[in-house]
Each structure stands twice: as C-alpha cells, then as structure tokens.
Amino acid sequence: MSCLAVEELSIHFGGLRAVDGVSFAIQEGQIHGLIGPNGAGKTTVFNCITGFYHPTHGTIRFQDRDITSLRPDQIARLGIARTFQNVQLFRGMSVIDNVLVAMHSHQRTGIVAEAFSLPFVHRQERVVREKAEEILKFLGLTDLRQQAAGNLPLGSQKRLELGRALGLDPKLLLLDEPAAGLNTSETQSLAQLLRTLRARFKLTILLVEHDMGLVMNVCDTITVLNFGQKIAEGSPSEVQNNPEVIKAYLGETVGAEQA
Fold it and tell me: By the 8 A CB rule, do 63 and 116 touch?
C-alpha cells in the first residue's frame, strides 16, 4: 500500500524549474531514498510535501488524501514530520523541553481546562511527559535530558531533532541529510537507528542523504533526481549500476580521463 504518492510535481521560481514533473510513490513501512547531486531538487520536494512550498503543478497524496494545498501545521497533524539539513532546535531550552514543545500540538486540552487545572489536564500532561522520556531513552539522551540543547555535540543534537519529530507521533518521517557532519562511527550508528526506528514506531521514512554508503545500506527503494527531474528509480543495486545515475554523479568525461 502506498503511504505517499507524488504525482507530476513541478515548482517554478520565476524562470527556474526547480522540480519538473517528478512522480514517485513510497510504500508503507519502507525506507525510501531521495538522492541526487547538489541542486537536484531534493529539499524542494521535501518542502512541497511538508507544505512550506506549494507546487506550480502536480498532486501530493498522503494515505490517499490530497495534501497539496495544506499548511505545514495541518500536514504535521496528519502524521508527517521532518528534520532539517541545519539542525533546528530551541537551543536555550533543555533537551526534554524540546521534545515536550513538539508534543504540545497533540494535547487535547483547552484554555479553560488548563486555567482550572482540571484532573484530566494533569493526567494528559503525565502521559505526554512519560512518552517524551521514553523517546529520550530510546535515543540514548536520558542522561542529557536537563542540558541546554545548544550545548550538545552535533551527533546528540541530530538525535534530539529526531526525537522532536517522533514527538509528533508521525506515520511518515522525512529526514533531510541526517548524516551531515557525522563521523564514520556516528553514521554507522545512525544506519542501525533508522532500521530500529522503523520497526519500533511503525514508520515509513523518506531519506534525503549525500552519504551513499548510508543510503545503499538502509534504503529499500531509491529515487534519483537531477536538475529537477527523475532520472532513475529502483533498488540500491539497480540505482548504483544505472548509467544515468553514474553520469549525473561523475560526469560524462570521467571514463575518458581515467583511460
């Protein structure tokens, strides 16, 4: 079953066609890679899926619902969460509070109930905090829970941003360059984490990543973009051996230069 379907997606900025007629579908429970050279349109596709951009043409369907024109907050409430290339945290807030802020959108209390401190408000706050603690434990951040997010090393900041996304209780998780800035050991740990995430939280994952080792290691299916257009799609081995993909990454003259 398709979790997300992108159909003939195009977005133009003036005369620039950042994305041009791209279509792909992500199956439930898959880790789906979206790759391509710099400027290929990957993050622009992410921004369309999450409502930060509205496409010039095309349709985006999430679990058979058209979400093309929805706002980012509406899309998040449906069950789509994302991380960013540059870590976006509340740097002065504690680790646990960063996760709690994300979870606030799922609380069902109103102003009147909170003002009078009704019993169910306290019950819900307790449930939310317990879930936040569970997420931190899963990500290995429990011992850092009271530290300011801005004081964490990059690897821990990336895990915290992932934890904040999990706090939205997503069905589809979009990860934008999660391995950027990580060392080899941290990237290997990330690969295992992504597999465990999928199983533990019953997630479907869309991954934009430049680390080809990570992509080939964890993805079930890969879509390749170049200059805003889809040039290939398939399993890691199929994509790895596709001549159009090789040319996009290495250029047409590589073979001649090596001869």
Answer: no
Q: Which helix (H) or strand (E) holds 12?
A: strand 2-13
Residue whose pair of structure tokens reads 């790759």 in the numeric block: 35
**Cβ atoms of residues 29 and 198 within 8 Å:** yes
Q: What CA–CA distance (Å, rounded) separates 44 from 9?
A: 11
The Cα 198–Cα 226 span in angstroms is: 28
Average pLDDT, the chain: 89
Burial of 6 by CB count in 10 Å (0-12 exposed, 13-18 middle, 19+ buried)? Answer: buried
- pLDDT tens profile 95-142: 999 999 888 765 554 444 444 455 556 677 888 899 999 999 999 999
Report field, pTM of the whole predicted structure over 0.85: yes
Q: Residue 123 CA to chain centroid, in angstroms?
A: 31
Amino acid at 21: G
CA distance 167 to 148: 18
Series of mean pLDDT values for 10-residue runs along the chain (259 residues): 94 92 97 95 95 96 97 94 87 93 65 49 80 94 95 93 93 95 92 94 95 95 97 96 91 41
Range list of H helices, the chain? 42-49, 72-78, 95-103, 111-115, 119-138, 154-166, 184-201, 212-218, 236-240, 243-250, 254-258
Instruction: State the DSSP code for 1.
Output: -
